[in-house]
Design brief:
single chain; eight-stranded mixed sheet; 313 residues; binds uridine-5'-diphosphate; alpha/beta; binds magnesium ion; 2 domains
Length: 313
């Protein structure tokens, strides 16, 4: 069986179209399938759309998280419920066109991960394209991941890869990195990504920066090493300056006047130390989050076992 997992956060207007189109494509593949829709704490009536879809077809399952946990955790919740031998994760805003599903399946034979990679020219807008470019270049340099630019969370995964992901307890999840980390046989299929027709992107600039930071910090300890490199550079400069001032004192009758340079050095060093304390704090904070071992998400309702929604499967 094939499972399709799609998280939805305030996607009321587009969700029923998404389900309709996805069901049509899945039916055409001739395989047994299920769709797991995860309502990530929407407040616009998305859950009602999901309930209607689940009533109409019992292969559509809906779960509602107890609040907004974010895209990556909503995907994780959906994957933990998916029962298929293969699982496809995709957005529910039709920016991941369901028509690509047969191509993913066609490429899945003998492989463990098939990524749908959007063709480079259709990243939405110049700014998003530029920021994505910088982000992937940086991440690929800092970590050993080799993530292709344009591979978002639209992919087919085999059961063993899904199980690996579900065994990873970390809270700050950068799923596409974790999937890459898992290895096995991974291939890529290119697709054309349309612009969002309805609703708006839930990834604000702030969320994007936090997401990128999660990615860097989860897969690289370079920010930590940066402290040593900059520390060494600064102390080298300090030594050179010391030699210079001593030389002037010994070989001439001038002295280097002091106050300004001392203050500047103290400020620069103090600032650098605070920045690196902050970076250290980020890693420690993440460890603290993981050490607490709180559940990654809470499910409030599930159409497959919740009597109150009139379902009994
Ligand atoms: N999403 C979610 N929880 C969130 C934010 C987004 O489940 O907190 C879902 C959203 O409904 C969509 C997918 O994640 O199906 C991708 O989000 P979006 O389209 O806003 O991101 P973009 O395509 O702009 O990167
Ligand atoms: Mg989108």
């Amino acid at each position: 069986m094939l499972s399709v997992v799609a998280p939805a956060y305030n996607e009321r207007e587009i969700l029923s179209t998404f389900v309709e189109q996805t069901v049509a494509v899945l039916e055409s593949t001739g395989e047994a399938w299920e769709i797991v829709l995860v309502d990530d704490g929407s407040d616009d009536g998305t859950w009602d759309v999901i309930l209607t879809a689940a009533r109409a077809d019992d292969r559509v399952r809906g779960v509602r998280l107890s609040r907004n946990f974010g895209h990556q955790l909503a995907l994780t919740a959906g994957m933990s419920l998916a029962r298929g031998d293969g699982v496809i994760t995709m957005d529910s805003d039709l920016q991941h066109p369901p028509e690509v599903i047969p191509e993913l399946l066609a490429a899945s034979g003998g492989n463990d991960v098939v990524y749908a990679v959007r063709s480079p020219q259709d990243a939405a807008g110049r700014w998003k394209r530029f920021s994505a470019h910088v982000f992937y270049a940086l991440l690929n340099r800092l970590s050993s991941l080799e993530l292709p630019e344009g591979a978002a969370d639209y992919r087919w995964m085999s059961r063993r890869v899904v199980d690996v992901l579900l065994e990873m307890p970390e809270r700050h999840r950068f799923l596409r990195g974790l999937v890459r980390w898992a290895g096995y046989d991974q291939v890529f299929v290119e697709y054309h990504r349309p612009v969002r027709q309805v609703g708006e992107s839930k990834y604000s600039l702030r969320r994007m920066v936090l997401f990128a930071w999660d990615a860097v910090v989860s897969f690289s300890s370079f920010p930590l090493r940066l402290a040593s490199v900059i520390g060494a550079l600064v102390s080298l400069l300090g030594w050179l300056y010391l030699i210079y001032t001593l030389a002037i004192r010994v070989f001439s009758n001038r002295v280097v006047p002091g106050w300004t340079s001392v203050t500047a050095a103290v400020l620069v060093l103090g600032g650098a130390q605070l920045v690196f304390l902050g970076i250290l704090g980020q890693y420690v904070g993440r460890m603290y989050d993981d050490v607490k071992r709180r559940p990654l998400f809470l499910i409030a309702e599930d159409t497959s076992n919740d009597a109150s929604t009139g379902f009994d499967r």
